Amino acid sequence: MRKKLVPISLIVLLVLTLVPGPAAGAPAKTKIAKEKQAVLDWLGKPETVEKFGRISDEIWNYAELGLQEFNSSKLLADTLEAAGFTVERGLAGMPTCFVATYGSGKPVIGLLGEFDALPMISQKGRVAKKDPVVEGAPGHGCGHNAMCTAAAAAAIAIKEAMVVHGIKGTIKVFGSPAEEIVASRPYMIRAGLFEGVDAVIDNHSSSGFGTGYGVDGNALFSTIFTFKGKTAHAAGAPWVGRSALDAVEIMNVATNFLREHLPLSQRLHYVILEGGEAPNVVPDKASVWYYVRNSDERLEAMYERVVNCAKAGALASGTELASMRVISAIHQRHASKAAAELIQKNIELVGMPAWSEEEQAFAKALQKELGAKEAGMPDKVDKLEAPVVGRDFVGGGSSDVGDVTLIAPTATITFPGAVPEAIGHHWSNVACWYGSTAWKGLNAGAKAIAASAVDLLTKPDELAKLRKEFEEYSKIHPYKPFLPADATPPNDLNKELMDKYRALLEPASEIK
Ligand SMILES: [Zn+2]
User: Fold this and answer.
1) How far is the CA of 454 from the centre of ligand 1 (A)?
2) What is the mean pLDDT of residues 178-204?
3) Distance from the alpha carbon of residue 285 to the mean position of ligand 1, in angstroms
4) 332 alpha carbon to ligand 1 midpoint, in Å?
5) What is the 3-state secondary structure (H, E, C) of 33-99?
6) How much distance in Å is there from the Cα of 82 to the middle of ligand 1?
7) How far is the CA of 397 from the centre of ligand 1 (A)?
């Protein structure tokens, strides 16, 4: 996306000639501490790449939606338990949430890991045109199948190095369900699961290999508004009825007018969950699910205006706003600069995986199908770039990692595997996250996670930098959850959909 103003090939050639730095697929020549070399060696073994590649593919096959990830969560928790971790399951009121712990005492380093899929985007792996495994079923269009897998691989590598080299401290994997509905982390924090954690390394799948810092993404309220009216014969005596669907429609009209009068940082979207069952009966129940997104500073004021639109819908239609169920409410991401700088060095050490001819051919075929430039897979890791200061933040997605960034210094490693220009939350992304590129990408991500965690466990000065920066930031931006105290995890939200598709998807599974 960034325009290169000067041809850089000559500069790159010069730099590579003059400085013995890392190149694509090759480790740096700088001396690597034995503890770090141990995690890189363990993760570099072909059997390790294959083991976690297969776990990732298996979770891809399960394609389980948020808070229905029973098989995915179990596979990851069992893998960690078999490797010697103590695993607590069913935490914070969510059956698929787990925490796996190895070691004892300080420092405590946390790794985040997600494993949920997205609805409607089922697609065959490594097929470069739309071709669902099961029409209408969920699919891993955000690579979450590879993410907790990368964290688990990294954690086990760290544990091996802790044993061999006597590294002190604790490593924890936070098995975090339902990121796609941004649900789990505020509940996990509320349950005290992150207490005592000194620093957190998050990861996310990508086409590039990099990290970042500063404020990013949108804060969000995810709320279901339910209206109650009165049924009636829709033609015979409609004046007797009060349509709950009318309330939903009036609310939606009101919020769509509201957009014009909100700062550009906002995002607002909805789906109608219930809108009646037949046109000849006035619907007495209707509900609409909203994502209300804005910056941390603007979120609550915007949400209040959306609630007013709901009240207007009820008033105008003569119905009742029966409930406003907050599914989740989260902060923007406030990633640690000190953590990102430490992580960047390890990303450069690991380097971009070398992609095979077949992988390049698949990438180009997919890019062609999507009408994008046929550039293939990337060959360089990303540079660490400073966030643009002084701009008015303009929209974007959300992640419940945001809340974690406000309770411990946190940064995210984005690891490669997706074809550049593959579209997020789309069949093209599902196609990328199965098989060889996903295996290599998550393995590279695991190396960067493990190497960074080893730095934090073995270099007290590095950890102290993160802690100092975080403690200063916390004074200006203390954590105050947006999640209402009475909110409960939406364990039921995806049940019906997943019950419908689970039996159709499971025969594809490979690991039992
Ligand atoms: Zn994602």
Assistant:
1) 25
2) 97
3) 33
4) 15
5) CHHHHHHHHHHHCHHHHHHHHHHHHHHHHHCCECCCCHHHHHHHHHHHHHCCCEEEECCCCCCCCEE
6) 27
7) 10
Mean pLDDT of 418-440: 97
C-alpha–C-alpha distance, residues 437 and 365, integer Å: 15
As to burial, measured by CB atoms within 10 angstroms (0-12 exposed, 13-18 middle, 19+ buried), residue 312 is middle
Residue holding tokens 């389980």?
A: 64
Rounded to the nearest angstrom, the distance between the alpha carbon of 142 and the centre of ligand 1 is 5
Local confidence band at 178 (pLDDT 50, 70, 90 cut-offs): very high
Dist. CA 418 → ligand 1 center (Å): 12
Distance from Cα 140 to the centre of ligand 1, integer Å: 9
| pLDDT reported for residue 508 | 56
Q: Which two tokens stand for residue 250?
A: 């009036």
Identify which of 94, 74, 230 has the alpha carbon closest to the alpha carbon of residue 152. 74
CA distance 455 to 407: 21
The pLDDT value given to residue 507: 64
Instruction: Average the pLDDT over 137-153 and give the result.
Output: 98
For the record, the structure tokens of 313 come out as 């819908």
Q: What is the DSSP-derived secondary structure letter of residue 418?
A: S
Q: Identity (one letter) of the amino acid at 430?
A: V
| Strand pairing report for 169-176 and 108-114 | parallel
**AA identity, residue 312:** A
Does the pLDDT value for residue 28 go beyond 90? no
Reduce the DSSP state of residue 153 to 3 states and report it: helix
Region 292-315: what's the mean pLDDT?
97
Ligand 1 centroid, distance to 73 Cα (angstroms): 16
